[in-house]
Amino acid sequence: MVGMTRKKTFFWLCIFLLPNLLGFLTFIGAPIVSSLIISFTDWDLLGEMQFTGFENYIRLAQDPDFWVSFRNTIFFILGYIPLVLIFGLACALLLNKQMKFRAFFRATFFLPVITSWVAVSLVWKWLYNPEYGLINYALSIIGIDGPQWLSDPNTAMIGIILASAWKDIGFVMVLFLGGLQNISPSFYEAASIDGAGKARKLWNITIPLLAPTTFFVTIISLINSFQVFDQVMIMTGGGPGGSTEVMVQNIYNHAFRYFEMGYASAMSWVLFLVIFLFTWIQMKVQDRR
Amino acid sequence: MAMENSSKALVYQNTKSKRSKKRRPIINKILFYLLLIGGASIMLIPFLWMVSTSLKPDGATMVLPPEFVPNEPTSQNYEKVTQQFPMMRFLWNSIVVAVLTTIGQMIFSSMAAYAFARMQFRGRDKLFLLYLATMMVPTQVTMIPQFILIKQFGWLDSYPGLIIPTMFAVFGTFLMRQAMLGIPRELEEAAFMDGANHFQVFYRVCLPLIKPMLAALGIFTFMQSWNNFLWPLIVISNQELATLPLGLSLLQGRWATDWGLMMAGVVISVLPILIVYLFAQKYFIQGMTMSGMKE
Fold first, then answer.
1. ipTM of the predicted structure?
2. Which CDD domains match (chain A) (predicted)?
């Protein structure tokens, strides 16, 4: 009898788990392991795979292109994160009140989030057009001679940052709205009795109590922005003069343009390590709470 | 009219009774709505500009000052982009890929989640921990071996190559397991007492209870698949099999300066997801919030 049920359980387990498990092992598990192995080899997909030890990693440390892409990615992050945090929070504060058309406004702010990066990038590329783009036209009205944006090495990354922030503000806003809902109204009532104004409430209640959300949003944004790729590929392709070349693009080029699978894999592991560092920090902080 | 008058009267009364104190809230309110409308405009103008540009005839895009509403709206860009370019083919590819990926993801992850959440077997928690651990690994690490694998299978330039590797995202299993853990034991016990087997419990008891989460996962997966650019870029070199994001980048490669045409292409790519969004807004926001991850 016991044997029967055991057999039966095993049968059902196979039905439920096996399809997913096979897919998982084939398309996620095995690739992770083999990626690590490939990163210690020299391989162009066609010839023999040759083990080269840490050579790829040593080459990486000395590769100026890699460091340029690393620096550009950091520059992107330093511009992008404050923008999405500040404006995401501002939008969340605006929309956290009872008001008319709240659903409409929320839907509007979220609209760019559901749109693909490729579509957003093309629209912004047009907006940034130095001669006929809407942005430089708007600037000309207030008497500013707009920059060349994406075709100038000094402003190209700024252009990418602004467009990216525009796309993701709604996402950050929704996360902050969730955080705001967790703050008990009693804090505000107590503060009102003490005669605190709006600014003080924001500074002394909302912002400190939102700290866990802010932390979470920052980590998520960091992890995502280390993987910035689509918008760069469409808007500048890494140019002009490599001024917007980012890490993932470097990986993509080495893997699928130059077919240096080993070197590209090594790069992807460095990217993973950087991302893992932030994931680890987040887990540590969460544990402490 | 009557409403307007009464509200005016109210405003008047307020200003009269506590003049200096009550005027501020009104100014604040105006400021508040101005900020809101300003923000919403910044979000909407690029979309409106996209539509407006797509409706302009040749030459009318390169005009200063720009026409915000096209003087002579025309559908010629849409005709050109669908006739001289396989835009409709891209649309079809995107639909096939997104729909099949979503269905696969929903079936496989909810079934595995049932095993992880409602069945007992040795090594269950360790296996799930392994699943979880892989969630930290970015797609850039797996994409190279995945590409090699797809090549070995002979799936380059094919629907299976586009669809199957993306169907097993661990996030889905994780989300569905979370949802299923919340189902009270008594419900399934009652079903087992009545002689139901695991599949019936899964299908009749568990799935109906996690429907909202399943919908959120479905919408989220659909959106991810619809907007995915990197994977099609890697797997597809035959233009006939390009999905919309890849197709748009090809369009850019060919008619980079024909902005009317490009914007028509972008509108075609955005419209379907926008329609889904209008009907299932709640699930979009839910899915994105839970994921905390987007590409």
1. 0.91
2. TM_PBP2
